[in-house]
Design goal:
alpha/beta, Rossmann fold, two-stranded antiparallel sheet, 208 residues, 46% helix
Length: 208
């Protein structure tokens, strides 16, 4: 059973075995989060070379035939993206034995990492997964949710973050939690008014 988890990939070592379109699809999703990606394959999709040119500090390309010795514990995550289901199964098995996270592109069940539909709008990040039941439905849900995330909602989040930082160390935890919970249900104008009101109140307390 999969547990949804957000992970900081910056500077994490990732190995992609395979250089085709599916491998390219994974690399495009990952590279934004600044991992160190090594791609090993006999042949490469042209788009992978273009990605390497753009992200030359984070992508290394090695032209070699697959060998199980490539799989070592220096990698945080391995993507099995060869055009050979049996070899991808072998990669999954070896990675699991070495306690390395594995994403098997031939069979998501034969691995411990899946790539859900993912919505990334500034600080709002939402993963949508149907456990392989219908990737198309995941994509449709992503489109519907994205419609809800407008500029006003992003501004509201920014103000709530600022309010949270402002209240830190100024109020006890229980009171701070109640204010932030109340603010999360307000519209943008109400949050701005609340911030002004709280600032004046806290300034008055400090003067006493």
């Amino acid at each position: 059973m999969n547990f949804p988890l957000m992970i900081d990939l910056k500077n994490k070592n990732i190995l992609v075995l395979g250089g085709g379109k599916m491998a390219c699809k994974r690399i495009k999703k990952l590279i934004k989060y600044e991992p160190n990606i090594k791609i090993i394959a006999k042949e490469f999709d042209d788009k992978i070379f273009k990605l390497q040119e753009k992200y030359y500090k984070n992508i290394t390309i090695v032209k070699k035939t697959y060998d199980k010795k490539f799989i070592d514990k220096s990698y945080f995550l391995i993507i099995a993206a060869l055009n050979d289901k049996k070899l991808n199964e072998e990669i999954s098995q070896i990675a699991s034995e070495k306690n390395i996270l594995i994403n098997n592109m031939s069979d998501f069940k034969n691995g411990d990492v899946i790539f859900p539909a993912f919505l990334d709008e500034e600080d709002i990040k939402i993963s949508i997964c149907t456990s392989g039941g219908s990737p198309s439905l995941s994509k449709q849900l992503k489109k519907e949710i994205k419609k809800l995330i407008d500029d006003e909602l992003k501004d509201k989040l920014r103000e709530l973050k600022e309010l949270r930082c402002f209240l830190k160390n100024k109020l006890d935890e229980d009171k701070r939690h109640k204010i932030l919970k109340k603010a999360s249900k307000m519209n943008l104008k109400e949050i701005l008014d609340l911030k002004k009101e709280l600032k004046h109140e806290i300034e008055d307390w400090n003067k006493r």
